[in-house]
Amino acid sequence: MADGVVWNFFQLPPVQASSTEEETVFDARARYCFESEAWTDLFSNEMLELEYVWRQEDLKFINLLSTLRVGTVTPELIAFMEARQAAYEDAVAGGDDFMHNTTHIYPTNEGVRAHNEQCLAAMEVKNKVTRVTFRSTDKAIGGVHLSDVDLANVLDHGLMPQRATSLCIGSRVAICVSDYRKEGVLNGTTGVVVGFQQRFPGEWHGMIVGSIPFVEFDTINQGVR
What we know:
single chain; alpha+beta; 10 strands
């Protein structure tokens, strides 16, 4: 653990990976690192609790999140979630635009794939566009002492990435890096695919690719980028 590194143990529980992707669930045998006997020896019992919430200003919502994150389900929280579920169902009944333009979070990858496929199929018909499928290829480079097959197995087991991703013009996406911070596009910023540029045969950032998507991101301070 390097100096200055901060961990947030409320983000995700430890996960004991199973044999298949959809069976990967929380396993009580997997422990948080601070439950180890070595933790106190290395870091003592000191803990820094960050109390200011930067991404929310609604105090009621903040309080509900604070109780939920420690596993406390109150009647107020249940009423709030039921009200939000009812509002969601009303919005879905209002048309396909809500389903396509709103970020959804699912507990399993299977749910994510089903939702994405539904949206892609609907956009292909409605907007008369064709999806482009991007397939990953794992290759050991830069001194990695693993064969390509072994590397792929390690990545599949540790990260559980999907081998192929399909997009079409109109697809909503989110960036998962902060390489474009100066442009106001931070990790988690969402946007819309507006086109594709063919790059085959050729290279892009050192990778041989067939085409790359162009995305307009909705930034907080600078509008669409």
